Amino acid sequence: MPEPVAGAQGAAVQLEVERWRAGTRVHAFDRVAEEVPIALVYEDVPHGVMLATPADLEDFAVGFTLSEGLVERPEEIRGVAVHLAGESIEIRLSVAWERFTALLERRRRLTGRTGCGLCGVETAEQAVRALAPLTGGPTVSVRELHAAIAALGQRQPLNALTGSVHAAAWVRPGTGIETVREDVGRHNALDKLIGAQVRAGADFAGGFVLLTSRASFEMVQKCAAVGISFLAALSAPTALAVRVARQTGVTLIAFAREQQHVVYAHAHRLREDCGDNRPS
Description:
Blueprint: E1 3-4, E2 12-21, E3 24-33, E4 36-42, E5 45-52, H1 57-67, E6 77-85, E7 88-95, H2 97-109, H3 124-127, E8 140-141, H4 142-152, H5 157-162, E9 166-172, E10 176-183, H6 186-199, E11 208-211, H7 217-226, E12 230-233, H8 239-248, E13 251-257, E14 260-265, E15 270-271
Parallel strand pairs: 4-7, 8-15, 11-12, 12-13
Antiparallel strand pairs: 1-2, 2-3, 4-5, 6-7, 9-10, 9-11, 13-14
């Protein structure tokens, strides 16, 4: 049986492998990111099962509940408890009664489930939610954005160990990266980050999110749902992500590298540094 890697809190396991390199075969050990079923249960009613890295699960549950619109405000989440259930993990949440009744109706109508960020939706309207456009938000300099991109790699311990997980970082202008969460799923990493910031009482108007993944529409929608108005991704966006960003007032930047980036929506929150003539 695989054994948890010391210090990784079950997020990675060490496995014996057969490694081939330049025609030579050797027996070695490799560290592999863990991925387990995580069942979300609201007031004893199962809602869905996600595959995730078993770390920062309270953050994940809070972030998922908010970003998916299952509650409207953090205070409507009354309790979170994580339980081992054999080979899986169960997260039990209690929520405000009016939110629970709406969740029950959504669960009753559920006939199928897509993976990858569309847990528990039935119609197109549920998938692409109508959200009020965001105003305000941070002003971020090109220099600050690129500095955060350069620093992110050193803030991903699980990825350094396994090479297979995504990260979502919270960056505050003038301070830099404050919080990072990692997971095998990019949606899960973002939900963990959202949950961590909510539990810490952070103000989403004062910073931005930096992702190691692509910017799919669900990532933009999750940010818009909780009031995050600035999202930067190291990889590409989708066309739907760009449309949702433009509709919801989210600044969307993709292909973000240390010396380059592409702005797809609401460029007014990004400013060029004085004396910096590089294109933004």
